[in-house]
Amino acid sequence: MKRVLAVSAAMLFAFLHLPLVVLAVFSFNSSRLAVWEGFSLRWYAAALRDGQLGEASANSLVIALVATAAATAVGTLCAYGLWKRDSRAIGVSLSLSLVTPEIVMGISLLALFQWVFRFLGVQLGLHTVILAHVSFCLALVVIVVLARLRTMDATLEEAAMDLGASPWQAFRRVTLPSLMPGIVSAALLAFTISFDDYVITSMVAGVDSETLPMVLYAIARRGANPVVNAISTVIVFGLGLLIIVSERLRKA
Amino acid sequence: MKRLRLIFLTPAAALLAGLFVAPLAILAVYTVLTRGAYGGVSAPFTVENWMRLADPLYLAIVWRSFVVAGVSTAICVVLGFPLALFIARSGARKNLYLALVMLPFWTSFLVRTYAWMFLLRDTGLINTMLLAMGVISEPLPLLYNWGAVIVGLVYGYLPFLVLPLFATLERMDPALVEASADLGAGPWQTVWRVILPLSAPGLRAGAILVFIPCLGAYLTPDLLGGGKTILIGTLIQNQFTSARDWPFGSAVALGLMGLVMVLLWLHARRGGEPLV
Fold first, then answer.
1. How high is the pLDDT of residue A222?
2. pTM of the predicted model, to two decimals?
3. Would you tell me which residues 206-265 of chain B have a C-beta closer than 8 angstroms to some C-beta of chain A?
4. What is the domain count for chain A?
5. Assigned CATH topology for domain B53-269
6. Are A205 and A55 in contact (CB under 8 A)?
7. Domain ranges in chain B?
8. Under a CB-based contact definition with an 8 Å cutoff, are residues A112 and B23 in contact?
């Protein structure tokens, strides 16, 4: 019984990790085919030389950084407000936004932007992508920060106020500092899902706002290309590192 | 204090209203309008878009999506149960194993889907290896079919099942398992007759968390199914891009949203734990 469980768990861990390991290993293959011919960094070099990939990566970074900053700020304030007193309307909207299929969120935002822009004469672009990303990162930030708040001692703030602090000072000087690890953890998670998103982004992006996932998607659909393996490996390691840091902070 | 609370909640409320509720409301309006010539919508009002949902052609797509999501969820349950049980019984290594389940999940959905394309395509690793070993003489058609889509969905959403199931198993009173053994049940009997029934709430929550994204999946069927496998998500996307029928696309999207909400409502009504 114990053996069976251990063996099946080992097989499932292999199922979860081997595809990514294989992808990473073959990104260093000198051959274009799925046959190992020798170690080479040529696909990484090719990725670096590609102007379109560079531009898309820059776009993705800008979008993820701005969206993360906005979602983290708004989400943290919201989590604190909800911690003080629950609001059903906001809670329900946040939960619903988490389970809304990505494609539905993508087209509904496209419909909104088209409708608004008919009156304002603005086009789709980086700004619409950023707004969309703030929208789907918000719920995640609130959940992570709220989970952290619920482990905290509410009487500390009361003590601060008994000693003469205003409610704002109690938040700013007592709660916020001890909440920091949770906030950073939430921000790192928001950054990863923003950087990785394809479905929603592709619906609301303009001609000048192609992101890295959009370029990868287009290349992947055209057929085998080891350059995608190379970029994928960089993404997995980069985002993986952020997630490990985030988990550490969340448990700290 | 009241004013402070307003300051804390207003930005989030405004964001949710403007970028989540308003877009869905606009879709709702679109569903009763006529399609425009170049995408978009125009007058007059009509209920035809909702009527078209009952067309057998589209009902077949909805049914197919349910089957694919159901099969994927069932496979996740079968695979996820032993994994969650193993982690729950692994003592001090628990957190490490949980991290191993979650790590690929968070890194990148797109990359993880692409990894399967690399493995499964005609010139992919599996076919290349089998050809080299002489097991096959022609590449097997592994990619661009329903099997590939289901593998991708299971791979993508298995962690959603393991987490709530693990939480339920960990909370379970170990004395119940001991009692079962004391009363003469073998280890398998204990799993089947004691642990499995007691883990039902976690299984149900996990199954819903897997089923919902599978039902609305777009990326996986598109990349691993190669556009030949039309599910609800693909249908919605097509209406907003190539078919340029926004009103009908909106009706399908809100229909999907409705299905998701019914599932959540059923889960809540049966006394399920809140999912989020």
1. 83
2. 0.90
3. 212-213, 215-219, 223, 233, 236-237, 240, 246, 249-250, 253, 256-257, 260-261, 264
4. 1
5. MetI-like fold (1.10.3720)
6. no
7. 53-269
8. yes
